[in-house]
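Dear colleague,

Thank you for sharing your sequence with our group. We've completed the structure prediction you requested, and as agreed, I am returning the results in plain text so they can be pasted directly into your records. Please verify that the sequence below matches your submission; if there's any discrepancy, let me know and we will rerun it promptly.
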Amino acid sequence: MRNIVIEVNGEADVRVDGMLLLNGQVAGRPRVQDEPEDALRHDTPREVVIASACHEAIRQYEKSRGDHSLAPWSQCGGAAQASLIGDVRAIIAGSLKTPADLHEAWRAQQTDAGWVYGPVASAVTKTHPDLMPYAQLSADTRRKNVILFTLASALLSTE
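Please find the predicted structure tokens below.
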């Protein structure tokens, strides 16, 4: 089982099994491993900064598992960024209270857009292996929701 640690005391550190995924000043601009210096400006709205930090933490987690397919935030499409920013806004508003809520909101959004369950994620056939109830997800997939929800909540609670 992986050990996920999020520390927030003026600094935000996310570690999975001791590997640093994200570190940065919470009050300033989070810095993420492999992030270009100009990826985010200092006046970027906080929900965008938090969404990008969450995305990069998930990307680093996936890389630690051998999956290098997730693009850096700066290279993600607008729809992917908008979806994660929307998640952060929903956490701020209090409509997403748990990692399970986060997943179920994503699943509803995907289903409404015509996506269905399939063994392989494909934009062409609109299939995704995670289009199932949260309780049926693999432990690794649930862990991604926990990382995203916990990191976003921790960064929001420091302001």
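Summary note from our side: The longest strand covers residues 19-25.

Kind regards,
the structure core
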